Amino acid sequence: MMKFIWDAKYSVNIKSIDTQHQQFFALINKIFFALSQRPIDTTEIKQIVTEFIKYAETHLAYEETKFQESQYPEAQSHCQFHDSYRHQIAEFEKQIKLSNADVPTIANQLAQFAQNWLSEHIMATDQKYSQFFLAHDIR
Ligand SMILES: [Fe+2]
Ligand SMILES: [Fe+2]
Q1: What is the pLDDT of residues 76-117, one digit of tens each?
Q2: C-alpha distances in angstroms, 106 versus 58, 77, 109?
């Protein structure tokens, strides 16, 4: 479990989106924190996981709305990365809901996956829209 620390290298130079990415990471940290508590509260962990999944989806949808509004030329390939993330998160979600699920283990895997995915996605994919968004008055 590694607490994620925000760094300027993750900035996309769009204030609304940096704030969302910070919240995305804050919720992942919240999962890790709940996992470090003893005794582990699986009900609470499930709640935080649900909160995280919902927030992350809100963020992806926000970006996609901005792609449409601005007619971002790389929207299609960008959305494919979002969809592959959604697909993997849906798998974790399905597993964690099973009656015999090992909730802490799955929550830990989900949080690790989401943390790696987001840090790579920001730097490899999100940062590509910075100039275009700024030119289209998306702040
Ligand atoms: Fe993003
Ligand atoms: Fe994105």
Answers
A1: 999 999 999 999 999 999 999 999 999 999 999 999 999 999
A2: 22, 29, 5
User: What span, in angstroms and rounded, lies between the C-alpha atoms of 34 and 46?
Assistant: 10
Range 38-135: architecture per CATH = Up-down Bundle (1.20)
Residue type, 11: S
Per residue in 35-82, pLDDT (tens digit) is: 999 999 999 999 999 999 999 999 999 999 999 999 999 999 999 999
Nearest listed ligand to the Cα of residue 21: 1
Structure tokens belonging to residue 72: 């971002």
pTM of the model: 0.96
Cα 69 from Cα 61, distance rounded (Å): 12
Sign of the four-CA dihedral 81, 86, 53, 42:
negative
**Ligand 1 center from residue 76 Cα (angstroms):** 15
| Distance of CA 118 from the midpoint of ligand 1 (Å) | 7
Q: What gap in Å lies between CA 102 and CA 40, rounded to an integer?
A: 12
User: 114: buried, middle or exposed (CB in 10 Å: 19+, 13-18, 0-12)?
Assistant: buried
